Amino acid sequence: MGGKKITKKSLTSKSGPTHPNSRRALQLQRIDHRTNKLQLAKKLRKKSSDSKVERILSLIILLPPDLRYVPDLAYLHSFIQSSFLERHSDELKEIEAQHRPGRPTPMPLIQLRERIARERLEYENGIDIPDLMNEANVKILRDWQGDVNALGLFRFVRISGSDKEQYVITQQGSHKSIAESVEQQKAQAVAEEEKMKG
Fold this sequence. Notes:
Layout: H1 8-12, H2 23-62, H3 73-84, H4 89-98, H5 107-125, E1 127-130, H6 135-143, E2 156-159, E3 168-171, H7 176-197
Antiparallel strand pairs: 1-2, 2-3
């Protein structure tokens, strides 16, 4: 069909009251519904990208500065369990210590417990994190300033606490240094394989 897009401004510019069952009233309802739907989608995208940015920044801050990359998958799981998932434990203990028995549980304590439980469940089921086993990826992550628009540059993998062997690349990363490092790793793997055969 197509045609001119009807907006609230174009409808309200027409004079006179609107009958509740009129065509114009239905058009206004559709416009309101579309606007609300778009605003909700925008809000959900922002919340999702904010939580992703917060996760990446937390991982990079927690990663020891002398470590250029994570050497293997076992170390990566150990790092996630001991550092990333435990990063709120001090705050949790502090809030719990301030909470008096018999009093209602404060909202910050409830929210923190829910967040910790959600992160642990996500880790068990499979969590998307930046590839910390790729040296080039870690280097560009350390230089990153938290810009959401730069997320496409990084290489992401999915790991799971219930399946410690899972290591699935979910995003290749468009940064040229990542592509170069992947090619170097492949060349090294081929060279080692040929050395073992020969």
